[in-house]
Design goal:
five-stranded parallel beta sheet, four-stranded mixed beta sheet, 2 domains, alpha/beta, Rossmann fold, binds guanosine-5'-monophosphate, about 25% strand, about 230 residues, about 35% helix
Length: about 230
């Protein structure tokens, strides 16, 4: 603990605490400064595909102050996707073995493929006080909320597409799915959108900049939640 006696109008920015909490005493008034401790926050982002989630994630990852959790999937890689960066691409057998060994914090079948979040990586980071971001569907988000080991650390956000027509347009423009796959994704999107009320935050997708600003504002607010902070 660092204690400092000083006169009024001491410029706080000049108080060097080297990351330690400090007590500043001004005219007998004690003011706490310095850093608080907290566990990592488990940010969960869900959105129907085509809602702008990938664009938002890419923008956030340009200047990351969190760790992005790389999921496992049995879906084949799309052009340009890198194993270990976008996903850990697994065979059905590999996925099943890991699921059987309870390596997944949550898992779900989405668009006829399997997806799962690796438990150990996420929990280790959270314990270290590092914030983690999961990009998972609504089934996975429900499993995370129901898991007592992480439920208190969750800040979940639903990115709502502006409308189904716009969603269809964005998916067609992306050009990575066949018309049949687009139809599956639109049907799934409509089903997923029913779950928006389960999330603490709902962001209506606008421009890339608006989505980034909205998400960053949520991150800032969650990091300032009093109940998350400990003063050692
Ligand atoms: P895509 O195949 O387009 O990358 O992802 C399809 C859907 O799977 C997206 O809604 C994405 O959020 C979801 N997803 C990706 N990784 C996971 C995961 O680890 N768990 C769950 N439950 N969903 C995931």
């Amino acid at each position: 603990m660092f204690v400092c006696q000083h006169k009024r109008n001491f410029p706080f920015s000049q108080l060097r605490t080297e990351g330690l909490p400090a007590i500043l005493v001004i005219n007998s008034t004690i003011i706490l400064t310095g850093s608080f401790k907290r566990s990592g926050i488990l940010f969960v982002l869900s959105a129907p595909s085509g809602a702008g989630k990938t664009t938002l994630l890419r923008a956030l990852l340009q200047n990351p102050d969190f760790v992005y959790s790389v999921s496992c999937t049995t879906r084949p890689p799309r052009a340009g996707e890198v194993d270990g960066e976008d996903y850990h691409f697994l065979s059905e057998e590999e996925f099943e073995t890991r699921a059987h060994a309870r390596e997944f914090l949550e898992l779900a079948d989405v668009h006829n493929h399997r997806y799962g979040t690796l438990r150990a990586t996420v929990l280790d980071r959270l314990r270290q006080g590092v914030d983690v971001l999961l990009d998972i569907d609504t089934q996975g988000a429900a499993m995370i909320r129901a898991d007592a080991s992480v439920a208190g650390l969750v800040a979940d956000v639903f990115l709502m597409p502006p409308g189904l027509e716009e969603l269809t347009r964005r998916l067609e423009q992306r050009g990575t799915e066949t018309p049949a796959q687009i139809a599956t994704r639109i049907a799934n999107a409509a089903a997923e959108m029913h779950h928006w009320r389960d999330y603490r935050y709902t962001l209506i997708s606008g421009s890339r900049e608006e989505d980034v600003e909205g998400f960053r504002a949520i991150m800032r607010a969650e990091r300032a939640l009093t109940r998350r902070l400990e003063f050692p």
